[in-house]
Amino acid sequence: MARVVLIGNLAQLTGGVKEFQLAVTSVKQLFEQLGALHPELRRHLDDGVAVAIDGQIYQDSLLEPIAPDSEVYLLPQIAGGAMFP
Amino acid sequence: MAETNGHPQANGQHYVGTRTIRPDGVDKVTGRARFGADFNLPGQLIGRVLRSPHPHARIVSIDTSKAEALPGVKAVITRDDFADQPSEFIPAGEMMMNYKDVVRNVMAREKALYEGHAVAAVAATSTAIARRALKLIDVKYEVLPHVIDVVEAMRPDAPLLHDDLFTAGVEPKPEKPSNIAKRVEIKQGDVEAGFKKADIIIEREFKTAPVHQGYIEPHAAVATVSEDGSTELWTTTQGHFIVRAHCARLLGLDIGKVRVTATEIGGGFGGKTVVYLEPLALALSRKANRPVKMVMSREEVFKASGPTSGATVRVKLGARKDGKFVAGFAELKYQAGAFQGSPVQPGTMCAYAPYDIEHVHVIGYDVVSNRPKVAAYRAPGAPISEYAVESVVDEIAKKLEIDPIDLRMQNAAREGTKAAYGPKFGPIGLEETLNAIKKTEHWNAPLRKWQGRGVASGFWFNIGGETCASLTVNEDGTVSLMAGTPDIGGLRASLAAVAADELGVPYDKVRPIIGDTGSLGFNFLTGGSRSAFSGSLAIVEAAKQIKADLCARACKLWEARPDQVEFSEGHVRPLGALAEKVKPMSVADFAKVAGKTGGPIGGVGRINAQGAGPSFGTHLVDLEVDPETGRTTILRYTVAQDAGRALHPAYVEGQFQGGAVQGIGWALNEEYIYGEDGKLQNAGFLDYRMPVASDVPMIDAILVEVGNPKHPYGVRGVGETPIVPPLGAIANAMEAATGVRFTELPMSPPKVLKALKDKGLSKA
What we know:
heterodimer; A: alpha+beta; Ubiquitin-like (UB roll); 5-stranded mixed sheet; 5 strands; about 25% strand; B: alpha+beta; Aldehyde Oxidoreductase, domain 4; 7-stranded mixed sheet; globular
């Protein structure tokens, strides 16, 4: 299971929950599972956040693979994407 | 062969890493290069903008009838010529902007929100007639109270700019509107617990002034709209695909009908990532049915295009006696200008990024006030927050009597360090830049009275993004290279070197150009230190397609299997027994028979570039303060920065030097000065004091190359990081020279003189 951590204001949309353990194999699956768990997050995920997978930041890259033991951070986008809440 | 940077060249690399001749050099030194204002079309009209004289006023009515009746006036536009836009956030450079605000920024609707805000525009047969027409436009204003300062704008009783702006990011959600657009936060660990472990805690408040990007070339655009809606636009921009998207949206046009060509650009630094004149020129052209040319004056550039934020920053940093940082807190209040969207978010993420600190908490506020909307400026938001942190780091070094480089080294982020904004760093080069600075002769050179030396480090993320570039092998074996991001800092030279090495052709046989929006797929803009990083990845991909195609053609010509051929050093070479039967074929050989072997030879790299490696730099500065006048002279300056791999060392050094000089201006002189009336008092280069060549010494540049593993050549972005450390380095040098810790930028002569007098250090 990948360890997923929300950075910045995103946790305001999850009732303060900042960490998740999720069985996902791609950024697309990550967004789908997080969106299902916390629908309020969905718009921000759809509009674009940066995703750091094992230290490497990806932006607008739905197909990027996530390994079972990956550490994943959701960050505000550096350029492009959506306004944070 | 051009001079290399001393970096060992890999097999097949002859041009990457060398100081090749600039492809744009001859045109620029001979004056042949066409910048925005150099472009003209037959029958063009001249467009001019009527701007608000008030910093804050409701627009009661606009009567354009007299202007329209003036002979020679062909079109007048106002807010009524632009459909309102819904609230929808879009990327604007390296920041976000709301289309509802974009349409109001290019042309005021309900209110004028800053002095210089566009209220109407005219197109006429001459500049003189256009100016006369502006005077005939009757705008009735209801003048409102204004607010300029960020802290004053945050007060509950401050004049309100937008009655529908409710602070985002706070719980519970506010019931009343305010000028605070949002609150953002970065948090790691438990800072309160961390501060309890500290032996020393320094807490300071800093102020920085808004500064302009100061590009020498003003905004300029020429637009023509035909009867069938087909539109052409030539403009000086950092991103013509972004201009196309914005203009299509604001004017209700199909993107495919809008063709935008980026002219040569005389500097942008982030300030040309948004639209100002372009939608106006298009709207005027559509109305007049003639081409329209618009060029801003320098006064308009200052008053109506985006500077970066001024800010108030509070920093609290705790360390143990041995120098280890244990906790860092910061509160950032950034001016956004008239509409929300300051770079406070990256400011929060960058503040402590150079350091390995377990407990970090940074809060940021995005605040609107009656100033022009801020635009991106090199590493948006980072210089401000990192200046404050680097000043406090220096103070801790002094208090603990630890060498400031050693203190930074002790706390430096390294590969595997968990960044203050979350993820772990990969291979990075901060330590290497600190070591490089410490090894310089500069670091130990003697200083005299009133002279001081300062050091500071800096960080910027760097980005990739959508990129499309093409390579075409011409009939004679020369290569046409087309990129879709404007060349501001050496893109053409860098990509031509990569293409030459990838295809094994001479550098001077590659002609790089910047294609228009009809010639390539979508490209994000030149910004985020991305264009050479992303563009070179796209060129490598395009070259890969060509090499695969040539190998396939060779197999057909030689009746060989794929494993019997390979591409190396510019040739498809037969392998094994086949080598005895046929001779290798060069790219030029294939070009001669292209038609007979399948048609034109070319490749297009279409990528969304990922893997931009973060960049760190360390700056060292010597300066001298004149106690009689308060004037500061920069005596010596050295930059060390991790470039990953410098595709073109001279251009990379130029980025280091340019960033340092802009930082010197930001630290010492530049500021927007407003009167009590809310009007800008120094909208010109005479009074807005940017450094010129005679103000600065030669900036020594040290290229540190810690390769980025996510790029085939190891490239990292280099354009933005160099503006981050100068503010802190200079403030630290000022303290060393005078004993005064300056906490307000710019450290201009009047402020320095006053501080010295207050301390009894000046009798002037």
